[in-house]
Amino acid sequence: SGGQQQRVALARALAAGTRCLLFDEPLSNLDARLRLHMRDELRELVKSTGVTAIYVTHDQKEALSMADRIAVMNAGQIAQLDTPEAVYNRPATRFVADFLGEANFLDGEVAATDPVRVKAGTRELKVQGSEHSEAGAPVTCCVRPEHVIIQRAEDPVGENTDNTLPASILSSIYLGDVRQYVCRLEEHPETIWRVAHIADGRGAMSPGDPVNLNFAAGQIALLKR
Question: Cβ distance 12 to 21 under 8 Å?
Answer without folding.
Answer: no
